[in-house]
Write a structure and sequence with these properties.
Layout lengths: L1 E2 L15 H7 L9 E3 L1 H7 L3 E6 L11 H15 L8 H11 L4 E5 L3 H13 L2 E7 L4 H9 L3 E5 L3 H14 L4 E3 L10 H25 L5 E5 L4 H10 L7 E7 L4 H8 L25 H7 L2 E5 L1 H13 L6 H15 L12 E6 L12
Parallel strand pairs: 3-11, 4-5, 4-7, 5-6, 8-9, 8-11, 9-10
Antiparallel strand pairs: 1-10, 2-3
Helix pairs in contact: 3-5, 3-8, 8-9, 9-11, 12-13
Bound molecules: pyridoxal-5'-phosphate.
């Protein structure tokens, strides 16, 4: 566990585009995802409320990622085709159909992001190529393929898949568009739009929580892969004028954020297979790092067994979600039971777990 006491009072300004929410509302299949009240867990941990934002059905996909992929793709295509900023999605689709059908979207993924990009490409009537690490299992590849993508297997890990996707998109010139959810030197706009797109989840959660409690979340737990979602969470909650503690959760086998926070500089780690596949990333996004370094209050690592046990506990409370999502509860329990100092976490706290994915098959881990 790593605690940054200075994050409690650190604030930032939000630059989120007010149009994002109405853009998402205009997409086929958009509805707010549910907020689940985990009252028995709140009672067990002696907290006022524990809510879980259930992203297991987000616009027809079992994860939150389409929020970022859709907004970033829309913004990137408008920029590439030099369309006026005010054109809507339907107009973008018409322009593509008339003269840009050769456009191809590229992305690297360990599951959910690639599927979201593939779905966006199909919706827009264009092709997609999704680069996957060698270890990615067959069922996950099939799900991406079923959204209409061509899968390209990379001999290496997620970081290697990002390099290959970028290089292949580059070869196509203006017909190749990389929609990647992690930033690196010279590639910042699209990842930032992805981060911005995720904000819809927090706006929904805030109003849902307010309707029940007339309060705002005091503590938010966010699962971390490359840290883009956490960047969105920190930017949102540290710019609202209400003190909010952000707890970042990573697999112990892929803890690039915690390693970086401890050493004070962004540090890549080599990763091992985990049931929390969406979090299996070795490098923090370059635009996320400066924000997470200042704005993450607590960083917690959890094991596969802990994530699995929390998933089973949530299932007993009728909350059916996947391991990346359940990792947030595992981390909350570690912080509460370990008597670690998490500022703002006490019996009056309203806690929000970001339940980022739905249930999926995985090999049950053993102790
Ligand atoms: C289900 C799930 N949760 C959380 C994350 C973490 O998001 P990020 O990589 O932006 O940290 C991912 C990333 O793909 C994911 O698939």
């Amino acid at each position: 566990m790593f605690v940054n006491p200075k994050a409690r009072t650190w604030t930032c300004s939000s630059t989120i585009d007010v149009e994002i929410n109405s853009f998402h509302c205009s997409l086929p299949g958009y509805t707010q995802t549910p907020l689940l009240d985990c009252s028995s867990i709140a009672a067990e941990l002696d907290l006022r409320n524990v809510f879980l934002k259930d992203e297991s059905t987000r616009m027809g996909l079992p994860a939150f990622k389409i929020l970022g992929a859709s907004w970033a793709t829309y913004k990137a295509i408008k920029k590439l085709l030099q369309l006026p900023p005010t054109v809507n999605v339907q107009t973008v689709m018409n322009v593509i159909a008339q003269k840009h059908q050769s456009l191809t979207l590229f992305a690297a993924t360990d599951g959910n992001h690639g599927r979201a990009v593939a779905k966006m490409a199909t919706m827009l009537g264009i092709q997609s190529q999704i680069f996957v690490p060698q270890y990615l299992n067959k069922p996950t590849r099939n799900l991406i393929e079923n959204e209409g993508a061509r899968i390209v297997e990379v001999l290496g890990d997620y970081d290697e898949a990002v390099i290959r996707a970028k290089a292949t998109a580059h070869v196509l010139g203006s017909d190749g568009l990389l929609i990647q959810d992690t930033a690196f030197d010279g590639y910042e706009d699209i990842p930032q739009w992805i981060v911005d797109g995720y904000s819809t989840m927090m706006y929904e959660a805030d109003s849902q929580i307010y309707n029940i409690t007339q309060a705002r979340p005091d503590v938010v737990l966010v699962p971390v892969g490359v840290g883009s979602l956490a960047q969105s969470v920190v930017t949102h909650y540290k710019s609202q004028g209400h003190p909010c503690t952000i707890i970042a959760v990573e697999p112990d086998s892929a803890n690039c954020l915690q390693t970086s926070l401890k050493s004070g500089i962004s540090t890549s780690v080599s990763t091992k297979d985990t049931i929390m596949c969406g979090l299996n990333c070795g490098t923090v996004s370059s635009i996320a790092w400066p924000i997470l370094q200042k704005g993450i209050d607590v960083s917690v690592c959890v094991t596969d067994v802990e994530a699995h046990e929390s998933l089973l506990q949530l299932r007993e409370c009728q909350v059916v979600i996947g391991p990346c999502a359940a990792a947030t509860l595992a981390a909350l329990k570690k912080v509460v039971r370990g008597k670690s100092t998490a500022p703002g976490l006490d019996k009056d706290s309203v806690v929000l777990l970001l339940g980022t994915e739905g249930i999926r098959d995985y090999e049950v881990p053993t102790r």
